[in-house]
Amino acid sequence: MLKNGLKELGFSTEKIDEMLPRLELYIKELQEFHLICHSALGAETYEEIVSRHILDSIAPYKIIQNLIDEIKAKNGADYKIEIADVGSGNGCPGIPLSIVFPEYHFTLIERMTKRTAFLEKEVSTIKLDNVTVSTIEVERVAQQSFDIVVFRAFSPFCKKMIRPLLRILRQGGKLASYKGTKEKTTEELETIKEWAPEWEMVPVKVPYLTDIQRHIVVIPKAK
Question: How many whole angstroms separate alpha carbon 88 and alpha carbon 197?
């Protein structure tokens, strides 16, 4: 199922073979963590975890790649991209994306120590040399630390959550938010237009989730 989903997303056979062992190990760890801690995955079976967490996290990888390419075009090919997953929880989307993009550094930001303990275990078990785990509230993260900030588990857009996220972006940086329906997301964006006047909403197709709308909202740091 996972292999077919990755094929549907457009990955080459070589890239799939490279990613698959780590992704399968991560899924196994998620299942064990869910059983032991009754974590709020919202998914229990292998099929649910693959579709609702792994493929959902990876599906917008071309959008993330485009953001990376834009930043490198402005800063040079040798520029070191820093990506953060804020409110990482059980590691989605940060861990799957770090497996897709092993050449870039990811920081998983999570304030709950039980979850960061799990994340640190996963980073070690899966041997993710490009990932750092940080137990901290986003409000305490140093300013202008990251080029791209992804987040999936947040509540609706509002002033309280958008301002600290924009603050930790470097100049020219972008937020990439995993959101649901176009209508609801547009309503939310209206409430933060004072702090995020520019944005782009891109539809994303997730394999096996044909009945669910998914969009990525890209918000640049205001000049």
Answer: 26
Closest C-alpha among 54, 55, 84 to residue 67: 84
Give the angle subtended at the CA of 142 by the CAs of 169 and 53, to the nearest 5°.
Answer: 60
pLDDT on residue 41: 53
- Residue-wise pLDDT tens digits, 31-55: 887 654 445 555 568 898 999 999 9
Residue 49 CB contacts under 8 Å (≥ 6 apart), including other chains: 27, 30, 31, 41, 43
Task: Write out the two tokens for 141.
Answer: 């993260």
Strand ranges inside 16-152, DSSP E: 82-86, 105-110, 131-135, 146-151
Q: Hey, what are 116's tokens?
A: 């960061």
Phi, psi (rounded to 5 degrees) for 110 = -150, 135
On whether the CB atoms of residues 186 and 213 are closer than 8 A, the answer is: no
Distance CA 217, CA 63 (A): 10
Q: pLDDT digits over 136-147, tens only?
A: 999 999 999 999
pLDDT at 39: 52
- Please, what is the average pLDDT of the chain? 91
8 Å CB contact between 59 and 207:
yes
Q: How far is CA 100 from the centre of its chain?
A: 11
Token representation of residue 181 = 């329906």
Residue 131: partners with Cβ closer than 8 Å, 6 or more residues away: 94, 95, 98, 105, 106, 107, 108, 123
